[in-house]
Amino acid sequence: MSNLGSSPSGAQNDNMRSSIIEAAKELFAKFGYKKTTMEDIAIALRKGKSSLYYYFKNKEEIFQAVIESEEKHLFSKLNEIVNTKMEPREKFTQYVITRMETILELDNYIKALKDEMLTNYEFLSRLKTSTEKQEAALLTKILEEGTSSNTFQVKNIPMAAVAIATALKGMEGPLLSSYYSFEDFKVQIENTLNILFFGLIRR
Amino acid sequence: MSNLGSSPSGAQNDNMRSSIIEAAKELFAKFGYKKTTMEDIAIALRKGKSSLYYYFKNKEEIFQAVIESEEKHLFSKLNEIVNTKMEPREKFTQYVITRMETILELDNYIKALKDEMLTNYEFLSRLKTSTEKQEAALLTKILEEGTSSNTFQVKNIPMAAVAIATALKGMEGPLLSSYYSFEDFKVQIENTLNILFFGLIRR
DNA sequence: AATGGGTCGACTTTTTTGTTCGAAAATAGT
DNA sequence: ACTATTTTCGAACAAAAAAGTCGACCCATT
Description:
Two copies of one chain form a homodimer.
Chain A: H1 11-31, H2 38-45, H3 49-55, H4 59-82, H5 88-105, H6 107-118, H7 122-148, H8 157-176, H9 182-200
Helix pairs in contact in A: 1-2, 1-4, 1-6, 2-3, 4-5, 4-7, 5-7, 5-8, 5-9, 7-8
Chain A binds a DNA duplex through helix 1 and helix 3.
């Protein structure tokens, strides 16, 4: 297995790497990306600033690793739901609710987006398309199950999955800017789901 | 009335000044003094960064104004209690509880202290002596009431007031560093009060 | 004692930040 | 309409803080 990553690998190494990610995660959540310095992270770990560069090429790479870690957390939760035996409609609902709830927990996601408002867009939007693909895959599975059990009726499943993934992504904005409480938002989600369902469910 | 302050005064002026203080208060509470930039404050107000300097000489002066504003809040609450008809012992207890509760609410106070750990000490300690004097005055009133109603027995009231003020100040540390929850701390306060009472109350 | 992963301090380079200043807007006064 | 005053801001800059680099040091293991 060649190590395509930029940093070395070893016993202690991976441990330290995840420690850094953990520390950075908390700091990013507290202060946001911009306001967290390399030294903040180093101090939290009681290490020298330069040691961080042994594990990560630069600050942005740490940020990326944090986001990826949060992403993993989200998708592990979503996968769990997708792989549970459940009525398609129920599964779909659970999927969306869980998705939104978890994202709400992902402080970093939020803080990151907030920072982005003031600084750089490019890298985060790159990320978005990546997650949308993953989501589309999960949604595809749900939709397939639903159609084969004759609950759903979808012409082009992959397309529908992408469309829904995009829609869900779009719903993040209002959620994260917390115009609504999550409870209020739940109502809106259910409304949206209702609309989706009556478009999807065979009558 | 001559304006000894550094900034001009006018109708809109005071309004803007307090707007700045409000905005800065929130940002300081969120990020702490160091991590809040002049631009952050300006953006929050949708004003140009340089406009702030029309109202305040510099960042530290804004910070000072914020702290003063919080101080006002604290002392308005304390004054309220001191000017309420109440049994001296009860009043004293209420005073201390309210004092500690309010201080706990004063995020800026806390955040400021936390920043101080990493940067400058001098100005905040200057502030401390100022508030201690104010506190001593309030405590003096309580003690006087208590003695004239024959509930308390104090030799040198002003001295006792200063001593108690100092003691209360000292209790802030453990409270703010939140080694204890406030509920736990309340017990400690009551213990301390008990000790104080049995030293003060005539037997 | 030689290798190499891991650490750090000191240094350089790059960005950010606080602050100033003069000139434009806006506003009030005449 | 004209003038004075208050309020706003953009551009510029010095100082501070940040990111990032590098060679020297550990300290295990071999």
